[in-house]
Amino acid sequence: MKAETKPTVLIVDDRADSIAILSSCLEDEYQLLTAEQGHTALELAAQYLPDLILLDVMMSDLDGYAVCEQLKAEPATAEIPVVFVTALLNVADEERAFALGAVDYVTKPISRTILRARVRSHISQNKMHHELLAFAKVLEQKELDAEKAKRLLNAVLDAIPIRVFWKDPDSRYIGCNRHFANDNGMISSEDIIGRTDFDLMPERAFALQAFAHTVISTGQSLLNQEGAITTHDGKLTHISLNHVPLLESDGSVIGIVGAYEDITQRKHTFDALQDAKIKLETKLEEIVSLQDKLLEAALRDPLTGLYNRRYLAETLDIMLAQATRNNMPLSAVMIDIDHFKAVNDSYGHPAGDEALKCLALFLSEQARSSDVVCRLGGEEFLILMMGASAENAQLKIDRHRDDFSNTIIRHQNGELKITFSAGISVYPLHTENSKKLLEYADLALYAAKHNGRNRVTIFNK
């Protein structure tokens, strides 16, 4: 298996000792390019398109501001994230750097841990940005393909002599071909949409409604239903009418597809109708596939609406870098519903879902705007509290725990009350590693449950 190529970082500084220090911090994780002059940096950036550029401000030929400005002016290098690494501490210098398009501003002397965290964070964000752009391009092409398939399907349906229509579960027309519209005195198929059989053919409306109801309720087709209709020009026509259920990918009925033909002038259109049906099913499958991809890319838990584990993975390192930059603690609070299995076993999974949604709503309403509330899966939740010390986090979560224990959760079979346990770990008090931060919060949660549940415990090594 081919090893994944390391990201490339271009280090630009006119001092060899500074380049050596920065290189020693990053050489184990990244491929490094170095330049001691601004013009050299521009040439290397254009040639290699690195994943990130560490740029000094004060240099002998072009200063860092001029280099950044020229990088952002060129389409090929404009999207490369630039991090200024400088001894300039003036706020105006920092503001100028961000105004020119830099993503970060790191001051010397360098903290190895902070530099690595920021570089890792910005490269991760840049990679995710390019992946999203690629996904958007694929999605755009899929939408174009779906629209092309729709036009082709409409052309096929309009070309065949059979009258074709489809209805929603309320037996309201949502589409048809041109021949069906013409039979009902209308020029365009769009004129049919939203109407019912009582609008189009009131003399046969009750019979047609009965056919549709049978197909939708049973999921079974009604084929070769013979009868007679009077077209808008007064012509009595004997027809053979078919109703077929329109199915979702999970097999549920979402409507019906209907078709009829003049029995006295039957033509060989069976194959064309089958082709149209296959194209319609293919189009529906493409739509379902696109929906699945969008759901997979979503960052929220579908049951509770909270952020999910994927969002946490993309956000935690960024919050840790922010906490470091602002010299603030970051508390991770792991929360687990006590005896949740007993809730499901005693009241049923719908009641368990209501309990999860109730706790999610409660935590969201109590959270500050700077807090991030996630559902990690099952009955496990996580809150990231920027600026909260271990004691402050414990005091707040313990108050929430007490308030929630008195909350009545209503479900279809009655009411119930539940409690939760919580474990807290704090950055940088307990660890500076994001993975360890979550592990320690989980260990603290385990201790809380082991010591009787319905309590909040701070991690203790």
Automatic annotation (TrEMBL):
All residue ranges annotated as the GGDEF domain in the record: 328-461
Recorded GO MF terms: diguanylate cyclase activity
EC number(s) given by UniProt: 2.7.7.65
Sorted UniProt keywords: Nucleotidyltransferase, Phosphoprotein, Transferase
PAC domain segment(s): 223-275
Ranges of residues in domain Response regulatory: 8-123
Origin superkingdom: Bacteria
InterPro entries, A to Z: CheY-like_superfamily, Diguanylate_Cyclase, GGDEF_dom, Nucleotide_cyclase, PAS, PAS-assoc_C, PAS-like_dom_sf, PAS_4
Catalytic activity: 2 GTP = 3',3'-c-di-GMP + 2 diphosphate
Modified residues (4-aspartylphosphate): D56
Keyword Ribosomal protein among UniProt keywords: no
Protein name as catalogued: diguanylate cyclase
Taxon lineage: Bacteria, Pseudomonadati, Pseudomonadota, Betaproteobacteria, Neisseriales
